[in-house]
User: What shape does this take?
Amino acid sequence: MTSHDPLARLIGELSRLPSIGPKTATRLAHHLLKVREEDARSLAAAIIDVKERLFPCSLCNAITAVDPCRLCADPERDRTRICVVEESFNIAPIERTGEFHGLYHVLMGALSPHRGIGPDEIDVEGLSGRLEWIEEVVIATNPNVEGEATALYLARLLKPKGIAVTRLAFGLPVGGDIEYTDEVTLGRAMSGRREI
Ligand SMILES: [Zn+2]
Assistant: This one.
C-alpha cells in the first residue's frame, strides 16, 4: 500500500477520487503506465498547478487565480442580485445560459442533517455579509433533499430582511444536479424563477 509499491500507491491515490472505484483506478493506473513520460509529467504538473495557483475568491468563494474573482470585479454585473450555488463549478453552466447578470455566492456545500452539515459548515456567514445592496437572492442549489433544505433555510433567513428570495423553476426530475442540466433547461429555469 505504501510507496515501496508505486503501482499500488497510484491505484490507491486514484481510487480516492470521486466516482472512481478500485476497478477504474486499476484501469487508469495501467493506462498511465503506458503513456509517454512527458504526458505523465504534464498531468502531474497540471494537478500541482491548480493546487498552487487557484484558491476561493475572498468575496464569493468561486475558484479563481485572482482576488477578487473576474465576476466580483466586473463593473458590468448587477450588484443588486446574487445567485447562491453549492459549488464553484455550478457557476459556469448558469453563466452559459446568459439569463443571469448579477453576482454569485458559493456556499461550498449544502445543508445535510444526515451528514451533520449545518449552517456553520457551509458559508452562510459570508453570504450574510454581502447583502447590503441586494434586492434579490436567487437560490440555485440542486433540486435534491440537501439543496431543498438549504433553499428553505436561506429563504427563512433572508425574507425577514426584505430581500426577494427566488428559486430556479426546475424542469428536471428531483434528485438531479445542476451540472448535468442542459443550457436550454437551465436557462428556462433561471428566467422562470419563482419567489419562495
Ligand atoms: Zn468572487
Remarks:
- Residues 57, 59-60, 62, 68-69, 71-72 surround zinc ion (CB under 6 Å).
- The chain is about 40% helix and 15% strand.
